[in-house]
Amino acid sequence: MFIENSDTSETFSKHDLHYMSKLLKNVATDLIEVAFPMCRSSAIPATPEILHLYRSCLNCVKMLYMLDMRKEFCPAGFWTAKKIHISQDLSRKNYLSKSIVSFHGVVNDRDDDEHLPPLSTIEQRSLAILEELPFLIAFNTRVLLLRDLCRYSLGENDYQRMHHELLNDSTIVIRRTHLYEDAFDKISTKSESDLKHKVRIQFINNVGLEEAGIDGGGIFKEFINEVLKTAFDPNRGFFLMTADNTLYPNPNVHLIVENFTDHFHFIGRLVGKAIFENILVDLPLAEFFLAKLLVDRASAHYLKSLDPVLYRNLLYLRDYSGDVSDLGLDFTTVNNDLGETRIMELKPNGRNIPVTNENRLEYIQRLADLKLNTQLKRQCAAFRDGLNSVVPLMWLRLFNHNELQVIIGGDTQEIDLSDLRAHTVYGGEFSVDHPTILLFWKILHKFTDIQRKQLLKFVTSCSRPPLLGFKELNPQFCIQSSGTENRMPTASTCLNLLKIPIIREEETLRTKLLAAIEQQAGFELS
């Protein structure tokens, strides 16, 4: 049902919603402390009334948070204003494989977690907040926790992780001329655990020769970016674009590819691998599709992100003050299957059921559900299963759908040159005060943000900076001298290394940099 109502007399004011959010947020965090007391003697009996209060309060806070994401009645930073301590040991103790039991002060472990130490009261409270109200924790804190969860899932210490890497290390040969096909054939069949471990790529170039270079991670970054770019290309048919240029599954993909669920599972696994390896990929996903990755069904208000025209028409129908039956609607909709028009009933015998003032909300709900859920059910389920096989959805639910887009594709804000410069190292004849380096940074300050992102992609294979700043880039962004000025700039993505010639003229260096970044046809190492 559409939550928004055009009759303001029937809704709360933004001031009221902000006040309720502030009050209930504090009550909810206090209730969690009561639910998990420090001393058994101070425990409150878990009566049905207490449990109902606890659950109702938490649900109200969640609803207010989701509404605030659309209506913005709370100021920026409101939900994370109260500093809540989260134990970083939760990831080491296999956090989120456990079931929290409110008002009992215990945690039910899975059978295979018996060897793990029990959680303290503080850790139980942390777990309850992360499971129930993760948006109360700062985004950066949750990102770090997700990183820890991925890292510790490969072993409890560096030795175990290195041992697993040595046992599971593999190299996959990929032809650049058959990028998606080779990736699907060789990765879709790999076991779920294998994809969590290191995967190295050996590219075969367009003339059938092995490309030079050893994959230290950079080539794999390029590979996963390019394969996902191909997979999400609307011309391939798996995904379509909305009016605002965001991607979502093609509802008619079954007419194009018979085994489409295998492909969506494979693509979901690749997105999961990118998240697991902290590789940003340039995928602007539709808001409703992101929401469906976290929950099974998208509610009707998400229709705006799929079809804004239909959304406005349904709002008009909802608020229509006349006799709805005069509009001549019935419980059917017209579907276009690759140019073939087909009438679909929204309920049994729908073509004979007129839409009236009494049943118009049912019509709106059924039509929105068809577009958002029914027509995309198998595609989204397969994608979600593939994603979950690499990064458990329980971990991703630490984030809302907008934050998930940032986790996948990075922030769209402009590149912070001061941050990049502060975390850049130099090699060869270069140093921080070398004349060519001073020219380089002067040129970058004059570049547009698009040109800066092109340069970043040229060097690192990704156009967006790391989520928590360039201090996360591993290896560090490095600029190395490559000889006299007759050379062109080159890059080694596996090392995040930019090689530029020693040049004293600003215009010459600028021209060479632009030529290199704008004509890049791949990241084959020299």
Keywords:
disordered C terminus, single chain, ubiquitin protein ligase activity, two-stranded antiparallel sheet, isopeptide bond, globular, Hect, E3 ligase catalytic domain, HECT_dom, 526 residues, 4 domains, alpha/beta, transferase
Main beta sheet strand tally, sense and closure: 4 strands, mixed
SS class? alpha/beta
Question: What is the CA-CA span between the terminal residues?
Answer: 57 Å
Estimate the helix proportion, in percent: 40-55%
Strand order of the largest sheet: 9-10-12-11
Low-confidence stretches: 105-112, 521-526
Q: What is the CATH homologous superfamily assignment of the largest domain?
A: Hect, E3 ligase catalytic domains
CATH architecture of the largest domain: Alpha-Beta Complex
Characterise this structure.
There is one protein chain. By secondary structure, the chain is α/β, with parallel strands linked by helices. It has four domains: 8-137, no CATH class; 162-282 and 396-409, Hect, E3 ligase catalytic domains (Hect, E3 ligase catalytic domain fold, Alpha-Beta Complex); 300-372, 2-Layer Sandwich (Hect, E3 ligase catalytic domain); 417-518, Hect, E3 ligase catalytic fold (2-Layer Sandwich), CATH 3.30.2410.10. Helix content is 45%, strand content 10%. It contains 20 helices and twelve strands. The chain has helices at 14-35, 48-71, 121-132, 139-152, 158-168, 179-187, 192-196, 218-231, 260-276, 287-294, 303-306, 308-319, 360-372, 377-390, 393-396, 401-409, 417-422, 435-446, 449-460, 506-518; strands at residues 99-101, 106-108, 170-175, 199-204, 239-241, 247-249, 332-337, 340-345, 424-427, 477-481, 490-492, 497-500. A four-stranded mixed β-sheet has the order 9-10-12-11. Strand 1 (99-101) and strand 2 form a beta hairpin. Helix 9 (260-276) runs parallel beside helix 14 and helix 10 (287-294) packs across helix 14. The longest helix is centred in the N-terminal third of the chain and has 24 residues, at 48-71. The radius of gyration is 27 Å and the shape is globular. The protein starts with 13 loop residues before the first helix and ends in an 8-residue tail after the last helix. It catalyses: S-ubiquitinyl-[E2 ubiquitin-conjugating enzyme]-L-cysteine + [acceptor protein]-L-lysine = [E2 ubiquitin-conjugating enzyme]-L-cysteine + N(6)-ubiquitinyl-[acceptor protein]-L-lysine. Pfam families: HECT. The active site is at 494 (glycyl thioester intermediate).
